[in-house]
Amino acid sequence: MAPPLSRRILLQAAAVAAAVPTLSYAASGRAGATAAAPAAWSVLPFALDQVALEPGVFAGKRELMLDHARGYDVNRLLQVFRANAGLPTGDAVAPGGWEGLDGEANGNLRGHYTGHFLTMLSQAYAGTGEQVFAEKIGTMVGALSEVRAALRREPEVLAVEGRFGTAAFNERGAYQYVDLPSGVLGGATAITVSAWVRPTHADNWARVFDFGDDTTRYMYLAARNGSGVPRFAITTGGAGGEQGVNGTAALPIGQWSHLAVTIADGTGTLYVNGTAVARNTEMTLTPAALGTPAHNWLGRSNYPADPVFAGAYDEFDIHSRALSAAEITELQDSRAADSSAGRGDLVSYAFDETSGSRFADASGRGLDGTLRRTWGGPSHPGFLAAYPETQFIALESMTGSDYTKVWAPYYTAHKILRGLLDAHSATDDERALDLASGMCDWMYARLSVLPAATLQRMWGIFSSGEFGGIVEAICDLHALTGKPEHLALARLFDLDKLIDACAAGTDTLDGLHANQHIPIFTGLVRLYDATGEERYLSAARNFWGMVVPHRMYGIGGTSTGEFWKARDVIAGTIGATTAETCCAYNMLKLSRTLFLHEQDPKYADYYERALYNQVLGSKQDKADAEKPLVTYFIGLTPGHVRDYTPKQGTTCCEGTGMESATKYQDSVYFQAADGSALYVNLYSPSRLTWAEKGVTVTQSTDYPREQGSTLTIGGGSADFELRLRVPSWATAGFRVTVNGRSVQGSSTPGGYFSVSRKWRAGDTVRVAVPFRLRVEKVLDDRSLQTLFLGPVNLVARDPSTEYLEFGLYGNAALSGDLLPSLTPVPGKPLHFTLNGTELAPFAEGTEDPTHAYFRRSEPRIVFGNTDSGVANPAKDDGTSLLDEVWAAAPFHGKSALVEHVRSTVAAWVTAGLLDRADGETVVATARKASFVS
Q1: Residue 896: which residues within 8 A CB-CB, separation 6 or more?
Q2: Residue 618 and residue 614: Cα distance in Å, rounded?
Q3: 3-class SS at 440?
Q4: Burial of 302 (C-beta count, 10 Å sphere; 0-12/13-18/19+)
């Protein structure tokens, strides 16, 4: 259970903080950028600025994303932050989608995409050094600093050009209104309310004014009712008792309109631009019936769910009599002060102010108005968000999920926090670190006072309680600040039920939202780094094994419809909404983090699988200034066409997609913590600058189009062990030469080939990794399979929505390689045909209908394209005779294959699974067939 924040806990956190060196270049190559690597890491990563991508498939994909990053106006992302703080937004238009108030769940996730974008820019700058990215980072960090400063102050008027002079503007998303003193209605029995307004958005039920006590007694004028036209109403009996009048046409957006309401002698009249558009002659209520309302608001409703008025106010007057039609008409062309009606005698606001939060009342009654926030203001000066603190507050009392009210506020906080930390790491901008530290100070102040049971309930709520990778980010911040409160904050996110189950090896993932939980475990590993508490690392290690391979698709992705199903159910989960892209992103982060502790090649194997297939394939192969063009789901149903503009845009997966495409090189190389070894985990064209050793390592390859890589040492000389990953699929051999001479070593698939020596400039290491075509069978349906050539998942391009049937044994090689059964497509590397159907790498980001899985069909026994005419029998478990024959590959020659066919046939005949005569035919066919070696 998350520990209570006693003095003892804080002292323990302080002791851990004191043990962490404050600054180091270990992870970044630049002093002052990040904290020292944790002592628990047995290998260290290289920073993005130490590994340069060379031309190849990754550099090509990255360039598409860099084009987007260069061209996108970051002021659009900042618009929602500035609006929330009541700052000018200029002409910037918010991105929309999940970042907009009209997006899914009312834009309750807005701000998250800005954090993703900051991370993308930071990675882009680290990876390329292009100044344009640093400039954009500086713009964003500077603006967010201004936003936080504004949130710490009382709101201030935004003065704009008015109908006659200056007007007060309220940006949509600002949650600001004008609070008028009690007594503005003066107990009047007759009244005129007159106002100039310029709405900027068609929000139904946004109030021009609302005077009342609650949702029972009030009087309001809405710029738009449910039908989109103005409505005035008064009631002492709630909505059902309203007496009102409705307009006949919608107010134009972006234009000034004059509204006036009069009540006298039982008649209420609504005027729009000087014309009476509606009249109710049966109004028995007057403002006097309301007494002295407690709430006298311009722009805010007594109904909390109604939107705040977005737009500008010019003159607002209340008269204690009903103005005549002629007087109201006169107000169309002159200010109230210059008209025969004069200023309102109850209140009169000209909105001429250009600063401050007070609006002078010119009626002579001294009832000045005050600009306020509907939510009051932040509970702590470190608060930073693109929306009010209300979602964080509401979560604390929630018992069930409702993302239309609360949508993962701590998830959004994580994205912002992560972006700020990455900005600081990339540019050393201390403002970013200050903002990040302030956010965590605020979260600590908010969460540390809550009971442990409340925290457990919050974090267990689907969607609303999601907090993403916030623990990892807080631990990273703590390593920089050393503040004990920050480490204590990280532990407040412990979801004990999940942690304890996984630490015990108990699989409880069935039914859980996948991406809500994957990043939790990366955070737990970082908590282990900071505290040494073993259950954190055990939980993460065991969790990884519950996903890989038990809930993993061939491309490395996981989840169906965003959720996990039962262990080992793969075929039963394939649909149009499988493999959420965020899940692959977060599984890669977890795999990388676990590798820092345990150099088990399975983590690198998984990393290669997911990176070279789902992650590469999730990015469309074209640039776009408006969108990153990244998938949300990757449907694995037959004939699925990828959607690179998912949902309404600015989704979580587009955010992580931007990040993935700017950090392709982050796990190519690792160094042993003591500097004694260099791990090469991925074969990718790149150039490593290993400053501590004074050497460079340049990988020259077109992998995976090329089946191997060449590494060249540059710089000085250094002693270290070169550890070359032998992929688990590399069953066709793994050969290494140094300066042209063969090197002996362990080439066991799923391990490392080690070469130790004193390396000198010019030394060349050639790695040959022959690819074989292989199938991977789905765990719960062995006839459903996916095809791989080396690390490359091959998909069939075909519009059919039924599973295609393929046979692959027909021309299998003596080595067991199935590749001879395919026909290469000239001029298109890694493209083949099979039975007239094109096969292509999953990584290609096209809009072709694809089949990632196919039905294996080997109806007759065929060797070397020679058909025996004999049906291919199968056992009860689905294993066919051909499966059993080829399972013994590789064969050292044709005679060895024929002998194995003879013994296998004999066993099947004895078991009654094959007729003796047919068996003799099968053996004879094997003898006369020609085989590729």
Answers
A1: 814
A2: 6
A3: helix
A4: buried
- Amino acid occupying residue 674: D
Dist. CA 694–CA 763, nearest whole Å: 14
What is the rounded distance in angstroms from the CA atom of residue 518 to the CA atom of residue 85?
A: 33
Separation CA 413–CA 470 (nearest Å): 8
Rounded Cα distance, 884 and 887, in Å? 5
Beta-ladder partners of 258:
196
How high is the pLDDT of residue 35? Answer: 79
Instruction: Give residue-wise pLDDT tens across range 636-669.
Output: 999 999 999 999 899 999 999 999 999 999 999 9
Stretch (H or E) spanning 51:
strand 51-53
Residues 6+ apart with CB under 8 A from 95: 76, 77, 113, 649, 650
**Beta-bridge partners for 659:** none
Residue 696 has pLDDT above 60, yes or no: yes
543 Cβ contact partners less than 8 Å away, ≥ 6 residues apart: 502, 509, 521, 590
Contact 837, 797 (CB under 8 A): yes
Side-chain half-sphere exposure of 477, counting CA atoms within 13 A: 33
Residue 689 — very low, low, confident or very high, per pLDDT cuts 50/70/90?
A: very high
Question: Is 7's pLDDT higher than 60?
Answer: no
Q: How far apart are CA 512 and CA 547, in angstroms?
A: 12
Alpha-carbon distance 594 to 540, whole Å? 8
Average pLDDT of span 565-579: 97
Contacts of 741 (CB under 8 A, 6+ apart): none
Region of residue 345 (left: phi > 0; alpha: psi -120 to 50; beta: else):
alpha
Summarised one tens digit per residue, pLDDT across range 339-386 is 999 999 999 999 999 999 999 999 999 999 999 999 999 999 999 999
Evaluate whether 596 touches 611 at the Cβ level (below 8 Å): no
Tell me phi and psi for residue 686, to 5 degrees. Answer: -165, 165
